[in-house]
Amino acid sequence: MIKKIGDVSMIHLSDSDSNIYVVGNTVIDAGTGLNFTRMMDMFKMMGKKMDEIEWVVNTHGHFDHVGGNGFFFEAKIAIHDGDADVVEKGDQELSFADFFDGNMRSHKVEKRLKDGDEIAGLKVIHTPGHSPGSICLYDDKNKILFSGDTVFSNGIGRTDLPGGSEEEMKKSLEKLKGMKIEKLLPGHGQPVLKDVHLVLDKISDDFY
Fold first, then answer.
1. Which residues have C-beta within 8 Å of that of residue 37, sequence separation ≥ 6?
2. CA–CA distance from 50 to each of 79, 130, 167, 185 (Å)?
3. Whose CA is closest to 89, among 117, 66, 65, 59?
4. Alpha-carbon distances of 164 from 46, 65, 99, 130, 151, rounded to whole Å
5. Measuring CA to CA, which residue among 6, 35, 36 is closest to residue 21?
6. C-alpha pair distances (Å), 97 with each of 16, 26, 100, 104, 169
7. Which tens digit of pLDDT belongs to each residue from 144-168?
8. Which positions of the chain have pLDDT values less than 70?
9. Domains of the chain with CATH codes
10. Cα separation of 80 and 152, whole Å?
11. CB hemisphere CA count around 69 (13 angstroms)
């Protein structure tokens, strides 16, 4: 399934794959890579070539978001410094690749992101809690937040996995609540295209 949200194309391959967002020649998260043929078909439907992608930006290092990195042959990979080693070392355990019956391959990380960086016109917001290097990406012009597995339309990412932290997640939610966000595009599930602040308030209230 392909869903157009302004200039963003959202690709949903399967319930096991993260949402894949295509913004110009940048991809945000790459899915597991286990549905590669379907992903190629989606790109053809969009009239884009996978080898034209310049950057793959991972919101964190779990396999359902990074397993497909290597299929964007010409792209450079960017991920927060806190999760970069998972990708560079091909860490089977910390990527939770076994959970998806996947094989985590190592890939060079060209850019180790930090809070406040900018990449492909998007601001990096470090939001640990689901993993040490979890990030959101913010399009200031269009007030769009790509939230990875930090927050979804109906809840937050798990904090009980190795590297997760309930305390860090609370701080991350507070950081996001103070932002002007008109569209929330999460790593899984449906986007939130209106009343984002109400959604974030409810999620925070339920979490606390």
1. none
2. 19, 29, 38, 21
3. 66
4. 36, 16, 17, 5, 14
5. 6
6. 11, 24, 5, 6, 23
7. 999 999 999 999 999 999 999 999 9
8. 208
9. 2-207 (3.60.15.10)
10. 20
11. 30
* Token reading at 187: 């790593």
Amino acid at 171: K
Copy the structure tokens of residue 152: 């979804």
What is the tens place of the pLDDT at every residue in 45-72?
Answer: 999 999 999 999 999 999 999 999 999 9
